[in-house]
Design brief:
Blueprint: H1 6-26, E1 44-49, H2 60-70, E2 80-82, E3 88-90, E4 108-113, H3 121-137, E5 143-146, H4 161-165
Parallel strand pairs: 1-4, 1-5, 2-4
Antiparallel strand pairs: 2-3
Length: about 180
């Protein structure tokens, strides 16, 4: 049997690329997410962490269980949860006020990343993408804050969200981010 023709080799290469991309796009390693702006008034976005690096806590269903079963709340407190692989999961309906930063929930969106001390590049990429979509939906008229900014009882988020999101001193995303 002879060698494969150059045309067949190119076709096989293209098919391999398509298979790899299909796996990558459907495996949770890439999270294509589109923010759907709520009709309620929103002025701020708060960033949180789950305060756990345990792998079996890496899902919105676990956080929902903590909030509903253990805290007695009606729903999970966060609107979004970002898993270690970067997948963005929806939590509380965006039309509802969050329950995540006591005394500062009105006119906010709440985002939680899974982790305590260990975060991934994919999580930060997804956080940037989601926050950029929110920023653009509000024409830049929205601020981003860490939970620790409104309480002395929390250190969350436990990473430099100001740098990751490219925020200015007032919590607005800088142009070109």
């Amino acid at each position: 049997m002879g060698e494969k023709s150059p045309t067949i080799n190119k076709l096989m290469t293209h098919l391999n690329i398509i298979l790899v991309l299909t796996f990558f796009l459907t495996s949770g390693f890439y999270s294509e997410f589109i923010f759907d702006k709520p009709t309620r008034r929103v002025k701020q976005v708060f960033i949180h962490v789950s305060d756990s690096d345990w792998a079996h806590h890496d899902d919105i269903s676990v956080i929902t269980n903590w909030h509903v079963e253990e805290n007695g709340w009606s729903d999970v407190g966060y609107h979004y949860f970002i898993k270690k692989n970067g997948e963005i999961q929806k939590g509380r309906d965006l039309e509802r006020m969050p329950s995540s930063q006591k005394g500062h929930n009105h006119a906010t969106i709440s985002i939680c990343l899974h982790g305590k001390e260990k975060f991934t590049k994919r999580q930060f990429e997804s956080l940037r993408k989601l926050c950029k979509q929110i920023h653009d939906s509000y024409y830049g008229n929205i601020t981003f804050r860490g939970h620790r900014e409104v309480t002395d009882k929390k250190t969350c988020p436990n990473f430099n969200y100001v740098s990751i999101l490219g925020l200015d001193e007032h919590g607005y995303m800088k142009r070109g981010i």
